Amino acid sequence: MHTWGIVVAGGTGSRFGPSESGGPKQLDTLAGRRLIDWAVDAIRPVCAGVVVVLRPELVGVTEVAADAVVAGGATRADSVRAGLAAVPTAADAVLVHDAVRPLASTELSRRVLAALTGGADGVVPAVPVTDTVKQVEGGAVVRTVDRDGFVAVQTPQAFRAEVLRRAHAERRDATDDASLVEQVGGRVIVVDGERANIKITWPDDMVIAAALVGRR
């Protein structure tokens, strides 16, 4: 499949707090490389081209090894739409990856793309939920959820380009692109994710990521 990748790096990182780089956390370094560079390198070997979506004020002043760099929007979905607009219409498949998941392997990208050829509209990597899950309202537990059948979803996620474009054409918002594809009736399947493919949300996550890199 003719595949292009989109690396989403347009977030503000408000939960992370002050960063090492003075900018958003995706520009902080892990083992001498910026998080965004780790993310681009993870998907580049399986893509004909890569689009990076940055915060508007960083476009033109931040060097990234990408085929196109575009400004993101107010939400994650807006940022992906901006990246999708830069993907050539000839693309059959699109990989969407978060810049704050620096430890995804290229093998994971290959796995989601391979599953896409089986007829699905989207493929997401996921790992089983191991913690007890409780629904809380007003600080009180409403119920304990049976975690069987629940998974935690990661990126990169793979999609048929035409379906992803159709899902985004309705300009809805969601925390991931698979949700948008599901909303337009697309068939999304799950493949095994990677435990090491953590999302950098809090400062402690950088410490964990550094330890994981050291084990490699």
Structure description:
- This protein has 216 residues and is an alpha/beta fold.
- It has one domain: Spore Coat Polysaccharide Biosynthesis Protein SpsA, Chain A, CATH 3.90.550.
- The protein is 27% helix and 26% strand.
- It has six helices and twelve strands.
- Strands 1, 4, 5, 6, 7, 10, 11 and 12 form an eight-stranded mixed β-sheet that branches. Strands 2-3 form a two-stranded antiparallel sheet.
- Strand 8 and strand 9 form a beta hairpin.
- The relative contact order is 0.18.
- The mean pLDDT is 92.
In short, what is this structure?
With 216 residues, the protein is an alpha/beta fold.
Features:
216 residues; alpha/beta; Spore Coat Polysaccharide Biosynthesis Protein SpsA, Chain A; 8-stranded mixed sheet; two-stranded antiparallel sheet; 6 helices
Task: Please give the structural blueprint.
Elements: E1 3-9, E2 29-30, E3 33-34, H1 35-43, E4 49-54, E5 68-71, H2 76-85, E6 93-98, H3 106-116, E7 122-128, E8 133-137, E9 140-145, E10 151-153, E11 157-160, H4 161-169, H5 177-183, E12 188-192, H6 203-215
Parallel strand pairs: 1-4, 1-6, 4-5, 7-12
Antiparallel strand pairs: 2-3, 6-11, 7-10, 7-11, 8-9
Helix pairs in contact: 4-5
Counting DSSP E segments of at least 2 residues, the number of strands comes to: 12
How many helices? The count is: 6
CATH superfamily caption: Spore Coat Polysaccharide Biosynthesis Protein SpsA, Chain A
Q: What shape does the CA trace take?
A: globular
Radius of gyration from CA coordinates: 17 Å
Mean pLDDT: 92
